[in-house]
Amino acid sequence: MKINVLKKIAITLLVTSSLGLAACGTSNKVSNSNSDKILVGLDDSFPPMGFRSNSNELQGFDIDMAKEIEKKINKKFDFMPYNWDGIIPGLQSKKFDVVISAMSVTEERQKQINFTVPYIMEKQVIVIKGDSKINSPEDLKGKVVGVQLGSTSEHAMEPIKNTFKEVKEYKNNMDAINDLGIGRIDAVVIDELVARYYLKEQGSKFKVAEKELSKEPVAIGIRKDDSAMKEQLDKAIQELKQDGTLAKISEKWFGEDITNNK
Fold first, then answer.
1. Hey, do 37-119+219-254 and 122-216 end up sharing a CATH topology, with the first three levels equal?
2. What contacts 93, CB < 8 A, 6 or more positions away?
3. 122-216 in CATH: which number?
4. The domain 37-119+219-254: what is its CATH number?
5. Strands 37-42 and 76-81, how do they pair?
6. Other CB atoms within 10 A of residue 225 CB
7. Which of 25, 92, 145, 236 could form a disulfide with 72 if both were Cys (CB 3.0 to 4.6 A apart)?
8. pLDDT tens, residue by residue, 115-171
9. Considering the entire predicted model, what is its pTM?
């Protein structure tokens, strides 16, 4: 998952998230594997995965999923907002037991921590107008393509950007989508989680092209030595996939099921 992209969006979407962040990295809690509670590290300024409502309550896809996992494993999650740049060291030093915060499974991270089975296959996608004929990265040849400056989307399109007519860089994704709407650009390369969240209420004005640029699994982060935790969470996630619960949560936050990991 493209964490830095969504953190920038969160600033404009939810000013109240700062209330939760004020305590990030300051807690002296230490996880206890024998407890009936599981401490969860997360970024709580990360819509639509985990963020604060106007009343400062945690909400989002990851929060809803965690509540369903609780029912499967008969334990309670205790959420602990934490600075994202220290989230892996925090897990390793047992500040919390797991990370549930749309964490992408990368080769570098796998050297440091373990992961559950993926619950979302994250993608870098192409957003286009509803009547556009663009269906794949190849169709961007000769087009004007927008992207958020410094985002992982910018990195994802690097191999093919020399085929574009022009790359227009934006400070945030909403500016790019607005320009797409008025015809200044032909497409926007963007993180799928961001795209689905933005476009959920847009109806047929915009759509996501059929073929993505890249895929990246998203899973729960666990310490290397905690095989028991991995086993029970893997089982719970698989059951939530099979009984349709994850699909329902995805429909709520994205308007469609993006949890099938295809």
1. yes
2. none
3. 3.40.190.10
4. 3.40.190.10
5. parallel
6. 9
7. 236
8. 999 999 888 999 999 999 999 999 999 999 999 887 778 888 999 999 999 999 998
9. 0.72
